[in-house]
Amino acid sequence: MASHPMTPNSWHRNREGLGIWHGRGKVAATGVGTSPTARRWDEKPETSMGALTLIAIRKAIEDAGISPSEIDGIVITPESTTGVSNDPNTPPPEGWDQVFKMVDYPQAGITRGDIDWILVNMPELTNVQFKMEGRGCMSVSFTTAAEAVARGLTHTCLVIRGWHNLAGRYYVGQGAAAGDTLAGPQKYAGLWGAPACAGTAMIFEEYCNKYGKNHDMMAPFIVEQRKNGLMNPDGFYSQHRPEMITVEDYLSGRWIAKPANIYDNDLPIQAALAVIMTTAERAKNHRPKPAYVLTHAQTRPESQGVTPTLESWERLSDKMGRMLFEGAGIGPDDLDFENMYDGFTLFHQFHLEGLRFGANGEKGRGYALDLYQEDISITGPNPVSPSGGNNGNGRTRFWNHRDSILQVQGRSPSQISKPANIGVSGSHMPHMCDSLIWSSSPD
């Protein structure tokens, strides 16, 4: 199996005191390409994760208004799900080799994003020299590409992630590993089949007890997420399940891991996204208005046991906010919108409070659920997750980044009413996150 280097650790801005990012305003996103969505793969080559990825790439190049030959770099997240994957040696389905060219890795294009597979199946990409894997999350691919462009290693770079969703149990203890035994950390944390949202639910309950809040206070956020997502013609719900949910729906939702109900969990889907990232100078010649990167930052879990704690989530999301503002040279009041991750809705407020978004002078923690009771819509003073996130579009971890780019370009399907000059996006957990500040101006 061919492999390419992963992001050097030294590229991650993961500590305070680094000052303004060296690439501030020198890197921009331009073209955006999104594939159609599907609930599950139907085993046809033409609807595979790889096929969707090629669609997204070609759309991004077309959207940017450039020639494929201008692309000189690719950064990809090879992992293409957080659910069930095939064994790496599982052969592709019948007829696969009649539609796509093969590489050494049998699951390339099926359950793995693969640079070499893309290149042999997109002969128009003739000048790709820089190749790197932003492993784990597309957020890492975005920050990796931003660094690579800022360091002069690539001038026109594709950032890519595809998602697959195979038939089978999704992300429930042993079901996630599709095995008879468990090894590694999962033998402690996933042995008894607790659903993936269980850890978040426990910390949310602790949060509510500490600050005097309750699960019902999440309802306005959930409703707003679905409303925003249904504005997006590329989202799963707008394409396949265009029904709105109500406060009553949410409050009566079936418990998955109390106090997390079914509406607090995102829906696994198949989809792909590709984005063009380039230099600020070259971006002037691309069709869309540039979305400039002002900085990026990373947090990772502090080793402390089987499951995170409320204190660690608060401490690390606070750190994320400080690092982002330091690197961009801005403050919380400069954010016009936020698009942080919401894969489990019950942790979104930790991101909000770490960024001090919509704090209105509040100095402490525990204000975000009160903020949800105010106007958090795209027409309000504090637009919360205008993308609709995973919860409003389907599980990908990329809708928030996509929308932040489109917001500052002024062309989001859920465009906020006030000027979208500066916004933030990041994924995924409060204690394990990669985030970027986006701006309509390089200054």
pLDDT < 50 runs, ≥5 residues: none
Based on helices, strands and strand pairing, what is the structural class?
alpha/beta
Question: Which CATH class of the domain at 9-169 and 268-283 applies here?
Answer: Alpha Beta
Number of extended strands: 11
Q: What is the general shape? A: globular
Give the CA-CA distance, first to last residue.
43 Å
Global mean pLDDT: 94
* CATH architecture label name of the domain at 9-169 and 268-283: 3-Layer(aba) Sandwich
Number of helices: 16
The helix-strand sequence is EHEHHEHEHHHHHHEEEHEHEHHHHEE
Largest sheet: 9 strands, mixed
- The helix content is 25-40%
Arrangement of strands in the largest sheet: 3-2-4-7-1-8-11-10-9
Strand content: 15-25%
CATH domain topology of the domain at 9-169 and 268-283: Peroxisomal Thiolase, Chain A, domain 1
Provide the gyration radius in Å. 20 Å
Write out the CATH superfamily name of the domain at 9-169 and 268-283: Thiolase/Chalcone synthase
Describe the structure.
The protein is of the alpha/beta class and 443 residues long. It has a domain at 9-169 and 268-283: 3-Layer(aba) Sandwich (Peroxisomal Thiolase, Chain A, domain 1), CATH 3.40.47. The protein has 16 helices and 11 strands. It has helices at residues 49-64, 96-99, 115-121, 138-150, 174-177, 186-189, 198-211, 219-230, 236-240, 247-251, 280-283, 310-328, 348-355, 368-371, 389-393, 399-409, and strands at residues 27-34, 73-76, 130-133, 156-163, 255-257, 260-261, 271-279, 291-299, 337-340, 422-429, 432-439. The strands form 2 sheets. A 9-stranded mixed sheet has the order 3-2-4-7-1-8-11-10-9, with helices on both faces. Helix 12 (310-328) crosses helix 13.
